[in-house]
Amino acid sequence: MDSFISTFIEITVRSVVSILGLFLLAKIIGPRQIAQLTFYDYVVGITIGSIAATVAIDETMPLWIGIWAMAVYVITSVLIALAGNKSIRARRIFSGTPKILLYKGKIIEENLASQKLDLNDLLGACRTHGYFSLDELESIIMEINGSLSFLPKSQYAPVTPADIGHKTEPAALMANVIIDGVVMKNHLKSIGKDEHWLNRQLEKDGYRNPEEVFLAVADANGKWKAYGKNKDYPATDFFD
């Protein structure tokens, strides 16, 4: 029994240390969306996760060895990223370069083959992005993270307000000014508004105070939208 308890405690401690180590190392690497990961980033992430799991359950491995092994991968990843920022040549070596798969309506078969992408994959990706014929596209580029970018021919490109001479207001980021009934004063200040303005908006929408609002967003142009707390509204699911 004593052996079980001691093993349980040791595994728990090792797991916590492993998690904290992963968290710290992830902060050093920096945030990236999965879609933005290069092949090397992906491999490093998998390897570090594997080492962390081994550290947690392998009692024969000293903790510091596992943490150091993870740190080596992170340090290498950071150095490669720094080299890529400083040198175009290094960036090309470690991250690669975008490849043109379609140019002026012509398929570049050599680049398709080099990226291990067959024609069915390419056509499927086109359909996923709303293009059901290659005739609609001027160019297709495979980015270094494996995603595809599409440049439609001018006659198939979406119409913008500028195309029809329509003037629009400058775009502005929407800030969360109320979250679950709590006023975000710093967010209000960042868009040049104050609580007096906020209270006027609430009054216009029929709210007596911020506590009645689940979420409210606004921008520097004065655009505003509030979502009230609907505790009495029955939960509805259209996808059962």
What attributes characterize this protein structure?
240 residues; CRO Repressor; alpha+beta; flat; 3 domains; 4-stranded antiparallel sheet; 8 helices; 46% helix
| Count of all domains | 3
Main sheet: strand order: 2-1-3-4
Q: Provide the gyration radius in Å.
A: 27 Å
What coarse outline follows from CA principal-axis ratios?
A: flat
Oligomer: single chain
| Share of residues in strands | 15-25%
Element order, helices and strands? HHHHEEHHEEEEHHEE
Q: Main sheet, how many strands, which sense, barrel?
A: 4 strands, antiparallel
The secondary structure category is alpha+beta
Instruction: Give the termini separation.
Output: 48 Å
Which regions have little confidence, pLDDT < 50, spanning 5+ residues? none
How many helix segments? Answer: 8
**What average pLDDT do the residues reach?**
84
Fraction of residues in helices? 40-55%
Give the tally of β-strands: 8
Layout of helices and strands, plus pairs?
Elements: H1 2-29, H2 39-57, H3 63-86, H4 88-95, E1 99-103, E2 106-107, H5 109-114, H6 119-128, E3 137-142, E4 148-152, E5 175-179, E6 182-183, H7 185-190, H8 195-204, E7 213-218, E8 224-228
Antiparallel strand pairs: 1-2, 1-3, 3-4, 5-6, 5-7, 7-8
Helix pairs in contact: 1-2, 1-3, 2-3, 3-4
